[in-house]
Design a protein that fits this description.
With 368 residues, this protein is an alpha/beta fold. It has a single domain, classed as Alpha-Beta Barrel (TIM Barrel). The protein is 41% helix and 15% strand. It has 14 helices and 13 strands. Strand 7, helix 6 and strand 8 form a beta-alpha-beta unit. The chain binds flavin mononucleotide. Flavin mononucleotide binds next to strand 4, strand 6 and helix 12. This is Dihydroorotate dehydrogenase (quinone).
């Protein structure tokens, strides 16, 4: 109530990127002292054994994670456990630092329960992020999202692969206490490097994954997938992915389709460059979770992401086949107490359905 009726109305009249930066600053400060962490934990945190799972060799206290894009420069790893998140992906981080696409980079579509995102991998770069993470220990599993640098210097697929490999090599050499990697091949906002540099065609994806395989990464790798490709193209990408050392796939990234029925027409007409998060991602994310689970649920961990605003949204993704669920936009609209509430309500939903643990509900709609 406090967030929704007092804080959010003020936030929503200020510039969205300014608010994001201010929240990050406050979160970093709160994460710097044990008494502020404890205070936050007392207010927001919820835990229950029913939510604990071991996935890809990693222990997760609960299945709700912060998705890539919110903590893109690794400032919040110390406060997010107190907020109640079960895990977090930092990034997307790129080898070459990038100041972000021309402003505006972030907008709000309140009627559509969505954000307009046009960051294009604003990143301090791998080297800076390593410096920050090197001295830290983590209470929850932290993932590193790696993407192709948004740089005009990368003109070919081969150069782009080289750039991504360079990032992985640097992270591996740094021996950070992080838990997993996320390979982001699905950012729709890259303006440099040419539109032809995409890893959606299986031929290009093969080249990339073959090179990554050779690195023998020490941590599990997840791939952040697009929700904008048709089913057949997505299946072909999955057919390629299962041939390599990939632990799982995340469905998925932002919605590109400006005719999506959940988008308010007037809000879309006013929207500048960028793509949409939140409710417009939800239905397609759910379809692709089900598709991936039915086809490769035994080989790949499926992670759901897109349009989670409450426990029912998260539970729907879990029953469709997601072992873990990630989110950003729901938290921005509902407030930081949402994470604890989702976890609490999730325990109730699991109990009502007679499940002793979240893992028993995974894929309940699509038994394989
Ligand atoms: C402000 C913002 C920045 C984002 N940046 C990234 C990014 O750098 N890398 C990435 O993989 N996804 C990024 N995304 C996409 C989210 O991780 C997520 O896939 C998408 O927003 C759907 O989830 P949501 O509806 O819970 O926000 C971003 C989303 C937002 C809202």
């Amino acid at each position: 109530m406090f967030y929704k009726f007092l804080i959010k109305p003020v936030f929503f009249i200020l510039d969205a990127e300014f608010v994001h930066n201010s929240i990050t600053f406050a979160g970093k400060l709160l994460g710097s002292f044990s008494f502020t962490k404890d205070f936050t934990k007392n207010l927001l945190y919820f835990s229950d054994k029913k939510l604990e799972q071991k996935i890809a060799g990693i222990k997760f206290d609960n299945p709700i994670g912060l998705s890539a894009g919110f903590d893109y420069n690794a400032e919040l790893t110390q406060i997010l456990p107190s907020v109640g998140f079960g895990f977090e992906t930092v990034g997307t981080i790129t080898n070459i630092p990038y100041e972000g696409n021309p402003k505006p980079r972030l907008g709000r579509l309140p009627k559509s329960k969505s954000l307009l995102v046009n960051k294009g991998f604003k990143s301090e770069g791998v080297d800076e992020v390593i410096k920050k993470l090197k001295r830290l220990r983590f209470e929850i599993p932290i993932g590193l999202s790696v993407g192709r640098s948004n740089s005009a210097t990368l003109k070919t697929i081969e150069e782009s692969i080289g750039d991504i490999i360079e990032s992985f090599k640097k992270f591996e050499a740094a021996k950070l206490a992080t838990a997993y990697y996320e390979l982001n091949i699905s950012c729709p906002n890259l303006i440099h490097g040419g539109k032809n540099i995409t890893f959606y065609p299986p031929k290009n994806l093969e080249k990339l994954l073959a090179k990554i395989d050779k690195l023998n990464l020490k941590k599990p790798l997840f791939i952040k997938m697009p929700i904008t490709e048709p089913n057949l193209a997505t299946e072909k990408m999955l057919d390629t992915i299962v041939k390599y050392k990939v632990s799982g796939v995340i469905f998925g990234n932002l919605q590109k389709d400006r005719t999506n029925p959940t988008l308010d027409k007037a809000e879309v007409a006013a929207a500048t460059a960028g793509n949409f998060s939140g409710v417009p991602c939800r239905a397609r994310s759910n379809e692709l979770i089900a598709l991936a689970y039915k086809k490769y649920g035994k080989k790949l961990v499926i992670v759901g992401c897109g349009g989670v605003f409450d426990a029912r949204d998260a539970y729907e993704k879990i029953k469709l086949g997601a072992s873990l669920v990630m989110m950003i936009t729901g938290m921005i609209y509902e407030g930081p107490q949402l994470i604890g509430r989702i976890n609490k309500d999730l325990v109730r939903l699991l109990h009502e359905d007679g499940y002793k643990n979240n893992s028993e509900a995974v894929g309940a709609y699509n038994q394989i």
